[in-house]
Amino acid sequence: MSVSQRIPRDQRRRFRTGRPCLDFTHTGGDGPYAVWELLHTPEDVALYVGGLLDVELSVVDADVAALKPLRAALTNAARGAARGIPPSDADVAVINTVAATPPLVPRLADGRVVLTPGTLPQALSTLARDAIDLFSSPLRDRVRVCAAEDCGLLFVDASRPGLRRWCSMERCGDRAKKRKARAG
Domain Zinc finger CGNR spans what residues (predicted)? Predict the structure, then answer.
C-alpha cells in the first residue's frame, strides 16, 4: 500500500491539486484555515506530509511547529498567484530558506521516481523546491481557487484552454452543474 493510500479517504480530495506544494497548503493553517488543521502530532505530520510525497518520514515533536512558516508562506504565495499577485518578499525568503536544506533523495525504481525515506526538514525542502518551480514558471498564472461556493481548494489548471473552474469535476463541478440544472 502506498503512503498516500494511508490518508483517510474522506481527506484525500484535499490533495489533488496537481502539485505537492499546493496540496501541503490544504493541511490547515492559522486564522481562517485553523478549522481545517490536520497536523497536530508527529504521527499526523508523517501521515499527511509523507502521503503528499508518497514517502516514509521520520518526524519529531519540534517538526510540528517548524513546518508552519513554510505552509503559511506557500498558502500566501498560492492564493496571491490565483489573484495575479506576486509573492511577498517575506514569503519568498521563507520558501528560499527552507529550499536551501537538502531535499529528499529521488531514485529510479521500476521505471519511476521514488523518494528515499527521510526527515521532515528534507520533505519541507522538497515542497519548497516544488513551489519555486511552480511560481517561477508560466503555471503560476494557472493557479486557481475552486469556484464552488463551499470549497475554496487551490489547484493548477492544466487544461489546454486554461478555463477550468473546479478543483474536481467529479465533486465540485458535478455539484455545481446539478444545482444549475435544478435552478434552471
Answer: 142-183
Which amino acid does the sequence have at 5?
Q
Residues 34-50 have pLDDT tens digits of 999 999 999 999 999 99
Alpha-carbon distance of 68 to 31, in angstroms, equals 12
Please tell me the chain's helix, strand, coil percentages from 3-state DSSP, rounded to the nearest 5: 55, 10, 35
CB of 125 within 8 A of CB of 102?
Answer: yes
Interval 121-161: pLDDT, tens: 999 999 999 999 999 999 999 999 998 888 888 999 988 98
Helix (H, G, I), strand (E, B) or coil at 166: coil
CA atoms within 13 A on the CB side of 172: 19
22 vs 127: CA distance, rounded Å: 9
Worst-scoring range by mean pLDDT, 5-9, 54-58, 63-67, 132-136? 5-9
Angle ∠(78,79,80) on CA atoms, nearest 5: 90
pTM for this one? 0.90
Dist CA 164 CA 147 (whole Å): 9
